[in-house]
Amino acid sequence: MTLKKPQEYIDDLRAMAGDIDVYMFGEKVENYVDNPIIRPSINAMAMTYKLAQEPEYEDLMTEVSPLTGERVNRFAYLHQSKEDLIKKVKMLRLLGQKTGCCFQRCVGMDAINALYNTTFEMDAKHQTNYHERFKKWLIDIQNKDLTIDGCMTDARGDRSKSPGQQPDPDAYLHVVEKREDGIVVRGCKLHQTGMINSHEILVMPNNSLKAGEEEWAVCFAIPLNTPGMIYVYGRQSCDTRKLEGGDIDTGNKYFGGQEVMTIFEDVFVPWDRVFMCGETDFTTMIVERFAGYHRQSYGGCKVGVGDNLIGCAKALADYQGVSKASGIKDKIVEMCHLNETLYACGIACSAEGRETAAGNYLIDILLANICKQNVTRFPYEIARLGQDIAGGYFVTMPSEKDFDIPEVGELVKKYSATSTEVPVENRQRMLRLMENLTLGCAAVGYLTESMHGAGSPQAQRIMITRLIDLEHRKELAEKLCGVKENNDVDWE
Ligand code: SF4
Ligand code: FE
């Protein structure tokens, strides 16, 4: 069966958990699957398996793989058309709506697609056999419906120095030994989304490299429980609320994201799992394509989370009796306008996609960068408008425990009430959701990740500068005002 059930996915993690070194709050975590801080992130990932089981979502969530002839999860699939690219964006919006957070599986899908076409072109130039190796590995991933963590961002040490100039060469993950049977790597990948919720890690170089930096030009895949791997769980704003035992103050009752510092301490990788080793001339391609696919992804997932935020603002306006005010209505329209603009960008870079030499489809890289540049701004404005509509009580409201104690519970409820038709608890839950999305755990994914994930704003501006043809635009203007001859008006 190529489509795993969510419970089977969780069972996989449970089977692996004893075998991997995870640290959090200064301690080793023995059973991370049932840890209350971590579990919501597993629930979010499990949703990518659950929806793939449902006939209603089959078309968005699954596709028949040309590699295996079987129906596979879209997260493990190679896009075969512009329509596939569009369906990807729609799938991510759906999952953002269902979870209200980062559901983590997209980095793997984006890495798979980028590696598939880059290895093909690398082999054509260098007569290597990376593409066949990669295909073999991917068929196994598709057959087992495994989750992959696409892994790019290094620790990067002194940002003014390239990998080869760093005082500590481990600042960028690199090959420390080449053996007959494989390579040994050392380094650290930061901010790894969904890392310990994945089955395998697919590593790529952090940036463009030049001759002399071959040891950093490395791509490979390993299972999570490979010896030498160490995982240190990243904390999030308000994370310890999940330890308090209630179910209101967390805001999102079920789901959350996950980011992990991922350390490779002299890790052995056999050759059949190595997909680049020293080809510095293909590092730009792999970085631009992976980043491009992931910048497209944000035009789906962030929009779905934005749908929740808009819904939250609308509900609070209703509960608090201000929904008829024209100023409130206008702010909600603005939130929708910004959110749908992000979606339009995600769809546009997909609709303008093209076939690669390897056969899978690539998004329009310029439009994907425009998409992500907007993502670095609009969610902040949507969040600001949401907070404006919510009023200040979402940051001053007492704890859910204060609503229940005999000493002050009834008074807290009395002074938290709005309309008699709205249960106080409904308002309380919705205010906490606003807090979660704009200041709490989910703000990690919705705001700061919108800024820095898939590359910080300046990275997109560099790409836009590189891809926009300004001379062509200058010539258009020169023709129009008569600086240059204009044959377009020669009607004869
Ligand atoms: Fe997917 Fe969005 Fe999370 Fe990235 S931030 S992994 S695109 S849900
Ligand atoms: Fe991301």
Task: Write up what this structure looks like.
By secondary structure, the chain is an alpha+beta fold. It has two domains: 6-84 and 98-285, Butyryl-CoA Dehydrogenase, subunit A, domain 2, CATH 2.40.110.10; 287-469, Up-down Bundle (Butyryl-CoA Dehydrogenase, subunit A, domain 3), CATH 1.20.140.10. The chain is 46% helix and 14% strand. The protein contains 16 helices and 14 strands. The chain has helices at residues 6-17, 39-50, 58-61, 82-99, 106-126, 130-144, 283-319, 326-351, 365-375, 378-390, 393-396, 409-414, 424-438, 441-452, 457-467, 470-480; strands spanning 21-24, 27-28, 62-64, 71-73, 148-151, 174-178, 182-193, 200-203, 218-223, 229-233, 259-270, 274-277, 354-355, 361-362. It has a six-stranded mixed sheet with strand order 2-1-10-11-7-6, with no helix packed on it. β13 (354-355) and β14 form a beta hairpin. The protein is globular and about 75 Å long. The termini are far apart.
